[in-house]
Structure formats: C-alpha cells, structure tokens
Write a structure and sequence with these properties.
Helices cover about 20% and strands about 30% of the residues. The chain has six helices and eleven strands. A four-stranded antiparallel beta sheet has the order 7-4-11-10, with no helix packed on it. Strand 8 and strand 9 form a beta hairpin.
C-alpha cells in the first residue's frame, strides 16, 4: 500500500499495510495477530518479536520460492489480490523454499476496482459497563443477559451474567471499523441466554460513529428500544486511523 503503515503482526513480526491487515485478521490470531501501532498496547514480548524478526527476515523465509515474484502484488494491486497473497504466504506457506509456488484464486469486486487508499478506517473500543432495570425473561422473574455488538460484518459479544435484571459486565470489546461501513451505526442487542429454547431479545439500541469525538471516551446511557424498560450503559472510544 502507498499509505503510511500503522499496523503490525505481533506474533509474525512484520509491519502490515492498511489494505493487507484484513487478510491477516482473517487468518486467525494463531497464525497472525495484527495490532495497531498507534492505538494498541504492545507488551515487551511483542516488541521483542518485532525487533528480532522484521519484514526482511520473515520474507527471506516465506518468499524463498523462485516463483514468488510472479504473484507478489504491487502497491496498486486490488485488495483481493493482496489478501489472497497473504493467505497463500502465511497460512499455506506456498512461497517458502519447499512450498507449491502457487497462489490461491481471487476475484476483484467492482468496488475494489474503483476504491483506492485504506480499507480499515480505525478501531472502536466499546466498554459494556452495565444495564439497569431489564425486563424479566425467565420464569423466576430474572434474566441471564448478555450483549451482542455489531458493526458491518463484525460481531462481538459479552459474557453472560446469570439471574439478574441489573447486570454489570465491565467488559471491553474491540471493533475493527471498515472504511466502507463508516456510515453504519454500531448496533447493540441485549439477549437473555436460554439453555432450553432460543435466546430471547430483551432490547436494542444503536450509536452513530459520526456523533463521537475521535479518541475521546464517551460515556453513554442508552434507553433500550422495543421493550417496556431498560437502559444500557456504555463507554465508547472511536479511534480513526487518520485522527
């Protein structure tokens, strides 16, 4: 990518461009664990991995195959090409000295052909603090609530708090925000965990990124919709890459 590099893989030991980081995330943290160089905390162990390896060292191992150059994308290549190369290189080990020397097939979407620049817009750090006065979903007058947080195609959820209408999670979740989803709201759904039947939704609410000040924690108390009562308490920090 031509963009300034703001990502790195903490366990591989390489810096990663904004267009390839999505491919690294898709591999799973056991293969590559991308972290923001600007916004994430780097432990001494992670820093040591970066200092002991680096892109040059890793590429000597994983791009040793003589056919690597045939498939390696240029800065102007489509995002799909770059992410297919990432999968082939890191997950399949296709370009190491004993690899197949072949890259996975990829297709270019129409949007990728016309969109230049970064694919990832930033990170949204959501602390789900607590809820108050939730509706009763269980036969015994309580609920087993948890919260699902969604944005674009990304979904994360809290742990379940059993037998309460006033749960306290104090759980921090991270959403990777895609550039093409910036106009979409972050959706919050509160559910009651049910071991016997399907889980019951006990309220929902949403937040727009445009209403948040960059890099400034916002403490919110949001009334739950589509139920008689309930409030969800959050702290949200929107960390755009270009801030």
């Amino acid at each position: 990518s031509k963009e300034f590099v703001t990502w790195a893989s903490a366990n591989v030991g390489v810096v990663v461009c904004n267009e390839c980081v999505g491919g690294h995330r898709a591999l799973g943290a056991h293969i590559s664990a991308p972290r923001s160089l600007k916004m994430d905390v780097w432990t001494p162990e992670m820093q040591q991995v970066m200092l002991s390896r680096g892109n040059g060292f890793v590429n000597e191992q994983l791009e040793a195959h003589p056919d690597t150059a045939k498939f390696k994308p240029s800065p102007n290549s489509p995002v799909e090409h770059k992410q297919a190369f990432v999968r082939s290189k890191y997950a399949n080990k296709a370009f190491c000295a004993t690899g197949s020397g072949q890259m996975e097939e990829w297709e270019t979407s129409s949007s990728a052909k016309t969109t230049a620049g970064q694919v990832h817009a930033g990170i949204c750090v959501v602390k789900v603090v607590k809820a108050a006065d939730l509706v009763k979903a269980d036969l015994f007058g309580k609920s087993d609530p948890y919260v699902v947080v969604e944005h674009g195609s990304t979904s994360v959820k809290t742990k379940v708090i059993k037998k309460t209408l006033n749960p306290e999670w104090n759980e921090t979740l991270t959403l990777n925000i895609g550039l093409h989803h910036l106009q979409q709201e972050i959706k919050f759904q509160v559910w009651d965990k049910d071991k016997v039947s399907s889980d019951d939704k006990i309220g929902n609410c949403s937040v727009s990124l445009s209403g948040l000040s960059p890099n400034q924690p916002a403490d919110l108390a949001l009334p739950l919709l589509n139920v008689k009562r309930g409030t969800l308490f959050l702290q949200i920090t929107w960390c755009p890459l270009d801030a």
